[in-house]
Structures are given as structure tokens and as C-alpha cells.
Amino acid sequence: MKEKINDMILDWDVDQHLRICADGVLWETIPEQAYMEHDTEGRIYLKDALHKTLRKIDTGFSKGMLMELSDFRQSEIALTLSVSVDITSNEVYCSLSTIKEDHQIHKINWPAPFTFEEKKDTHYTLLTVQQGILLPNTWENEVKRLPFHGQFCCADAYMPWFSQIKDGNGYIAIIRQPWDAGYDIDHPANGPYTHVGVYWLSSLHEMRYTRTISYQFVKQADHNTMCQIYKRYVKEIGHFTTLKEKAIRNPHVEDLIGCMFVHKGIKTHVSKNSDFFDPQNPDKNNSLTTFKKREEEVKEYTKKGVKQLYYHLDGWAQPGYDNQHPDYFPICEEAGGQEGLHHLLDTMNTYGYLLGLHDQYRDFYHEADSYHEEMAVWDAHQHMPSHKYWAGGVQSYLCSSIAPMFVKRNFEKLFQEGIYPHASYLDVFTCNEPDECYHPLHRVTRKESLAYREQCFAYLESKGILASSEEANDWAIEHLIFAHYGPYHSMMHAPDALTIGIDVPLFNLVYHECMILPWPMEKIKGHDDQMLFALLNGGAPYLEKDGAYPNTDGVFTEMYEQLTLDEKIRRSQIVCDLQKKVAHCAMINHSFVEGDYQVQTITYDNGIKVLINLHTQEYQIIEESSH
């Protein structure tokens, strides 16, 4: 069935071949990649439905087609699919809903990916993996499996969209219900193609509600164009919240702008049942630094002229870092206890510095006094997922519906002891996928899981505490002030590791004026000076950062050039000075100079432009009056 709507032509058949002609450019899907995943029957292709109907629809604001599919040999599910064009915006909406459920269908891939087959640099895919990736069809490395299987609302996708551009003509696909969705990506080594498409996950065994993805087709587009389209979208739905707006609720937001970031710890204890436990080198399993020692370091920063500082403290409680959460009391006694932490906080206040405490409300350690399997996440098979990777040993996952109660309990304890931190870091909430819990006493959907995490951030905000988490993420933008990082994907891997594309600041092109992101500042032997990326992105500098675990979370100490503290402060101050000028500014353009990925510029809406040259490891900051 074919229909012309505005200047767009839709051509769709019951075998799932969808063709969209926009501005004279044809986009067509791959029918074999429209399918459902069944728990016992495996893959069921939508084109194999025995009963198929297709008719035109006209809602008054959109026109298109509606398809009903049923009578699959392996499943009783019945689906309604629609493809329509908004006659006002010219956006194409593809929606899926169920007429009849099948509780064994856990995933539906529809609409199928577009063909994207030409082996050309000018044909590329944009993925919102962490800061963002530009993946040319010619890219030499295979891209297929991501850590969270491409789920949205986690590190695999800071924002719920993807895009493909061929010779300047492209589309952006925006997922309207991202909490139960993800994307599959298939790019073989050296191309010649890249296939990317959305998938929908069942929610508590059901599809439950209508799922929608929208496409906007654009001429003369690049990654900046697509970011601006998405930015307009989040503003239209009331999701965009700037730092200036957040500063009205908590004035400490302004105090954070221009800070050098320091990440240090107090106590480390690796449990014997942890995968990190080293029986051959027992001294590596435990370490302790007193609050007094950290206080002396803070005083040293002041002597060396550091005016603004944010100090993140790990392992400040008795169990030690990544141990016995959510039971993180008493305050570490051998490090100085309540009095020692209180004195450190008083010192921070004296110098106008900010103190943030690490905390964790997802990893649920079996050694915690509060641990009980009845509060843990249960999966669809009534099993309790567990592992023993981190320092605290065997852990399950705390159900997100319970997390807010533990947050309130622990912070009220801190307040009772006279400890009022300026900030708190609720670990992993923004980098790990939303949880789904099947426990009969606290069944939680993924969407509800994110809402409970937001409730934890909102509680901190209500107490005047700056909320942060591990990474940046779109879903938490209303309450999140800053993060541990919002890195390029390559930064999370060893400098000589294979990369999955070209790093681009997609997240910052949308949300730069909404979050403060600190950046690594190391000079990597034989590789890039990471200070250049801190400058390019107008972020905060990490003055010092101790990795919690060796060679994880983007810390590869043995590969860094050794710099004196004075040199670190000098370099960090350059980044801080720039951040003060651009923290509230929109990032309006990022480009590769003459197509060279090693020479990049970013322009802010106040006229400041930053140029970095990775060939020479040099930078330039150009200040011009905005028009």
C-alpha cells in the first residue's frame, strides 16, 4: 500500500517491507529483521503471521496506515502496527501495541533497521553510547555487542535516540518510551554496512502499552543537526532543566562551577569471597587513610593556591568502599570516626571547598546486617540475580522501590551526627540499566525503577545536597547536578584498545548547560593529553583521582606521565577558568576541521570557540563577542 502525505511517500506491505521517500531520498527497511523473541520458540518473524490486514488511517493530525497481525504458528500474540505522518511536523511515527498478549514474548524488534549498505565515510551512524559515537560505514572494527545490550537509560545510551546520515541526508529516530527499549547494532569489521534498529522489551511479562518511535528526515544534516532536533524535543516535553534552574533550588550549584575535582578514599577492604581478593598479596586487600591525612591534603591544596575544590570521598564508613551497602555505618572508627569526618568537613567549610560522600543503593551485599532476600530484585523466573565481582563479595540487587527508605535512613543518621555533606554520589544509578523486579511484594517495572532512583535524587535535593551519580543520563536530568564522569566511550578502555567509532560530544551538544561533568586530565604516554578534551567540552578538571579498582572505570595509572601537584594545579586552573565562562552556555557546534578527526572545534553560544589539535597536542581558546 502506497500513500503520499505532504511531500513524503509511504509504501508498506504486510511482509514488513517499509519504504519511506523523504525529500527525494529513499529509506527502506530489512523485512527479515522485524521479529519477536519467544522464550521457548526462539525467533518469530512478523512477516510469517497467517492473518494480516492493512488499511489507511486519518486521525485529523496524521495520516498513514494500520496493520493487524495474528495467527502466528508459534504464538497466540496479536499485534497492531501503525506507520503515520504528522501532517504538521512531517515526522513519521511508528507505533506497536498488542491486541492479545503472549507472556513468553520478551522482545519485539520493530520497525526493522533501514538498509545502510554503502562503504563510504560519508555514510555514518550516530549512537548515544556515553558522550557519543560517530560510526562510519568504513570503520575498521566490528561493532555488535554492547555491555548492556544497547538498552536505553544506561551507559549504552545516555539519550534515547540514534541517527544515520548518508551524504548529508539523514534521519533521527527518537524512542518515546525508552525505559523498556534498546537498540541492536550490527557493523562488521571494515563495513560495508551498519544496521541499527529499535527493540521493545516486555514489562513484567507483557508489552502492556503502546510503544512508539518517531523519525525525522533531514537534508544537509550532520551530528549537530540531530542534537538540535533532540534538544527541541526535550524542551517541548518539559524535560530540559538547566543549571541556572537547578541553582534556584540549591545555590551550591554555582559554587561547584569552577571547582577542581579530587577523588580520594578512606578505607578499602576486599572480602575473601570477592573476585578482586588477592590471596597471594594480602596487603593489597586492605588499606586505610585517616580523615586527618585527607585534611592535611586539603590544607596543602590551599597553600598551593587552589581557590575552589570539590572533594569526593570513598570508603568513609566502617565497612569500607563497596562493602555491606546499604548499611554504611558507623563512620570509619580507625580513620578517626565521627569526629574525624566532622573535622574534615569543618576544614572544607573554612576554605569554601565542597565535600561529597560516596554511597550505594543498588548493590545489595549479603554481609550487610539489613540484607534479606525478600528486599532483593527477583527476576521473571523467581531467581535472585547475584555475583561477587566487587570488593564486598557476594551481592544481589536492592529493589529500587526500597532504596529511597534506606537513603533517608542513612542521611538522617549522618545529620544526627552533625555531618551535612555538600554533595552525595549515589553510585551506578545512571550507568546501569533500569531494574525490573518480579518479587510478589514489590513488583517494579523499569519505568518505576527509574522513578524510584529519581526519588532518591529528589530527597538529596530537598536537603540542600548536590545530587550526583556515576554517569550522565537523560532520564535523570531534572535532579542530577553533576556526575563522576560523562566520558567518551574510548576513555573507559585502555588507550590501545579497539574503538567502536569516533568520539563525538552528542550529550553535551544537547545538555551542556544542564550538567557539570568532570574530565580526566592525564597525559597518556604515547597517546593524547586528556586535558584537551576537558577544554573542548567546557567541563571541570580532575586534579587528582584514585581509582577504586586497578585498570577499571577508565583509570590506567601505569600509562600516565607523572606530573607534579603544582603542574596539575596549573593545568586544572586553565580548565576551571574556561568552565566558569561556558558552564551556563549551550554548545552549539562541534566540527572536524577539514574532515580531520584529530583537529576539532567546539563553539558555545557566548561566542567562545575551542580548538584542539591531537596531532600536535595543542589547543586554542578563542573568545569573540556573541551576536
Which terms would index this structure?
single chain; 627 residues; alpha+beta; 10 helices; globular
Topology, pairings included?
Elements: E1 2-5, E2 8-12, E3 18-22, E4 25-28, E5 35-38, E6 42-45, E7 51-58, E8 62-70, E9 78-86, E10 92-100, E11 105-109, E12 123-127, E13 133-136, E14 161-166, E15 169-175, E16 181-186, E17 195-201, E18 211-218, H1 223-236, H2 243-249, H3 252-256, E19 260-265, E20 267-269, E21 286-288, H4 291-303, E22 309-314, H5 337-350, E23 354-359, E24 363-365, E25 395-397, H6 403-416, E26 423-426, H7 446-462, E27 466-471, E28 482-485, E29 502-503, H8 506-511, E30 518-519, H9 531-536, E31 540-545, H10 565-582, E32 587-592, E33 599-604, E34 609-613, E35 618-622
Parallel strand pairs: 19-22, 19-31, 22-23, 23-26, 26-27, 27-28, 30-31
Antiparallel strand pairs: 1-2, 2-3, 3-4, 5-6, 5-11, 7-8, 8-9, 9-10, 10-18, 11-17, 12-13, 12-14, 13-29, 14-15, 15-18, 16-17, 20-21, 24-25, 32-33, 33-34, 34-35
Descriptive report:
By secondary structure, this protein is of the alpha+beta class. The chain has ten helices and 35 strands. The strands form seven sheets. Strands 7-8-9-10-18-15-14-12-13-29 form a ten-stranded antiparallel sheet, covered by helices on one side. A hairpin with a 2-residue loop joins strand 14 and strand 15 (169-175). Helix 4 packs parallel to helix 5 and helix 6 (403-416) runs parallel beside helix 7. 48% of the residues are buried. The mean pLDDT is 96.
